[in-house]
Design goal:
CATH architecture of the largest domain: Up-down Bundle
Order of helices and strands: EEHEEEHEHEEHHHHHH
Strand content: 5-15%
Number of domains: 3
CATH topology of the largest domain: Methane Monooxygenase Hydroxylase, Chain G, domain 1
CATH class of the largest domain: Mainly Alpha
Shape: flat
Number of helices: 9
CATH superfamily of the largest domain: Phosphate transport system protein phou homolog 2, domain 2
Radius of gyration: 25 Å
Largest sheet: 4 strands, mixed
Structural class: alpha+beta
């Protein structure tokens, strides 16, 4: 069945409903109907709409006495299902010890809860709907996390004490949570269908910056350097400013800052080359921060793709 759209006002389009369907449901002027968006479909119903729930099953085969590796494997499986938009994940396992790892993985994903369990199986269910989450506010959380990490690193460099590893690690984990939530929204919301690849690259890359900052703090806490030069400090601040430039570019409707991102990348790399040539002992730190510059520059291409409509 096909219908033509009719313009009503500046931005509204209207479509007529089949008379047979209206009569069947005994609908009259002023009655409410339900609309639900599912990918590129608009489902119209005279009753409450229940969108089909996506379910996936896993049969876990774990390695004895390798809890860390087993957790990473389980988190990878459940995280993948979460990012793809599955509402229910059913897991089978041989030993009840797997439940602790499954619960830990579910706790790291916003809205996932272990709802049913038996001796050798359990089911994780999503407790959030599309109406409960917003992409922009969730994505802003990752930017906020990164700026907090940048602030802590600069403060501790100035104090010459690196004792906040647990705090940095917790911030990184928070970044992971909102990364996965953003990727889930991209997978399930038709608004992102056209540019889902570009959006996904940006979300993954922004979160990777938080992981890189965690790596940098780990390095600083191990080496505990006491003589980071002012030149190196200036270099670090320039990269923090570069990240802030990308944040402004992302939330801007124009392409004005995107060109500046390309130019600034070259300036920062020239600065890093000069520092490397001095053969100072901060070279590892300079290299670790240079990775962030490359990630920001690469994200810029995806952002231009999204904005070029």
């Amino acid at each position: 069945m096909k219908r033509k759209l009719v313009r009503q006002g500046a931005a509204t389009m209207m479509v007529s409903l089949p008379a047979k369907w209206i009569k069947k449901l005994n609908l009259n002027k002023g009655d409410e109907i339900d609309l639900a968006e599912e990918d590129d479909k608009l489902i119209i119903s005279g009753k409450s709409i229940e969108i089909a729930k996506k379910t996936i099953d896993y049969d876990l085969k774990l390695i004895p006495k390798r809890e860390d590796e087993n957790y990473r494997y389980i988190r990878s499986l459940i995280g993948s299902a979460y990012r793809k938009g599955y509402d229910s994940v059913k897991l089978k396992f041989e030993k009840t010890s797997a439940l602790k790892l499954i619960q830990k993985a579910a706790d790291s994903l916003i809205g996932y809860e272990v709802m049913e369990q038996s001796e050798n199986s359990c089911t994780i269910k999503s407790m959030i709907s599309k109406a409960d989450v917003d992409f922009d506010s969730s994505f802003r959380k990752i930017f906020h996390v990164i700026k907090l990490m940048q602030k802590i690193i600069l403060e501790d460099i100035n104090k010459k004490k690196f004792e906040r590893l647990a705090e940095i690690s917790q911030l990184k984990n928070t970044g992971w949570k909102f990364r996965d939530l953003c990727l889930r929204i991209i997978s399930t919301d038709s608004e992102f269908k056209k540019d889902s690849f570009a959006y996904s690259i940006i979300v993954w890359s922004v979160e990777k910056i938080s992981s890189q900052l965690n790596r940098i703090y780990n390095y600083l806490s191990r080496k505990n350097p006491k003589n980071i030069s002012q030149e190196t400090l200036k270099f670090i601040k320039s990269i923090n400013n570069y990240f802030e430039m990308f944040e402004k570019a992302y939330f801007s409707e124009t392409l004005d800052l995107n060109l500046q991102i390309s130019i600034t990348k070259e300036d920062i790399f020239k600065q890093s080359y000069k520092l490397f040539e001095k053969k100072q002992q901060n070279n590892v730190l300079i290299h670790l921060y240079s990775v962030i510059v490359r990630r920001i520059y690469d994200m810029n291409s995806s952002l231009i793709m999204i904005k070029s409509k």
